[in-house]
Amino acid sequence: MNRRKTVLDLRKMKADNERIVMVTAYDWTMARLVDQAGVDMVLVGDSLGMVVQGHDDTLPVTLDHMVYHTRCVSRGLENAHLVGDMPFMSWQRSTDQAMHAAGRLLQEGRAQSVKLEGGEAAAPTIRALVSAGIPVVGHVGLTPQSVHAMGGFRVQGRTEAQAEQVVRDAVAVEEAGAFCLVLEGLPTDVAAEITHRVSIPTVGIGAGPHCDGQVLVSTDLLGMNLSFKPKFVKRYETLEDTILQAVQRYSTEVREGVFPGKEHSFNRRPRKVAKLY
User: Fold this and answer.
1) What does the pLDDT look like over 157-191, one tens digit per residue?
2) Whether 12 contacts 56, CB under 8 Å
3) Are 203 and 212 in contact (CB under 8 A)?
4) Closest among 105, 104, 95 to 129, alpha carbons compared
5) 3-state SS class at 31
6) Where are the domains of the chain?
7) Catalytic position from the list 78, 117, 175, 184
8) Please, what's the b/e burial string for 13-50 (b: 16 or more CB within 10 A of its CB; e: otherwise)?
């Protein structure tokens, strides 16, 4: 019988020097496919604000959005560990607010853990959630919910002072009880130092090859938006072209009367004639 990977499984992967594979998903269809492909973790990221909703950043995403999409994804998973993102302003006001948000993601969304952005400032909230039995994935470096404070989506930790702060943030997140840590938009050497210093798994995105695992947005790695190509993304397919060509062929066949054909159509069953003798 299949079972989803747990916090203990993921921590053991770091201890055994096994690389962790994480991708995002936002619906049942993608969740089912990436799970069958054998990924270790699935993140329902607030990146859905950009990928699904078409916004320029993640800030418009609400807790209700996250609960809904996490619940959809949970139905498609049998093996991968499911992480639900804590969206902007769903936890920053108070510990009670954070408990409520995280509780909804686990109870209604059926997530196994939650992710929240921030380092030293987020540590007290992480500590409170972990004390309540809620597994937490931390997130330091480029934190998209702070896009305005950072002046845009910029690589963090380039100066010595910035690098030291990111390392302090990572250590604070571990000490607060997080079981895993996303490192985003960091120089390779900074991410490598953090990965060496902390005992919990690190999962990088735009943070070089020395993390314990990697995460990419599923639509990015599948090439479903060819106009978006940050440096850290590798496209393993170009499905935008494939989808466009498929829909164009469908449109042509409908307009030319080729589809639907006999093989796609239904006929009435012949009426049974009653026997007279």
Assistant:
1) 999 999 999 999 999 999 999 999 999 999 999 99
2) no
3) yes
4) 95
5) helix
6) 7-238
7) 184
8) bbeeeeebbbbbbbbbebbbebbeeebbbbbbbbbbbb
What's the pTM? 0.94
pLDDT-above-90 percentage for the chain: 91
Identity of the amino acid at 134? I
The domain over range 7-238 is classified in CATH as 3.10.330.10: no
Segment 103-126, tens digit of pLDDT: 999 999 999 999 999 999 999 999
The amino acid sitting at 240 is: E
24's tokens: 């995002």
pLDDT tens, 50-80? Answer: 999 999 999 999 999 999 999 999 999 999 9
- Residue 214 pLDDT: 98
What size, in residues, is the chain?
Answer: 277
Among left, alpha and beta (phi > 0; psi -120 to 50; other), residue 144 is alpha
Q: What is the Cα–Cα distance from 49 to 155, expressed in whole angstroms?
A: 21
* Rounded Cα gap, residues 224 and 140, in angstroms: 27
Let me know if 237 is a catalytic residue. Answer: no
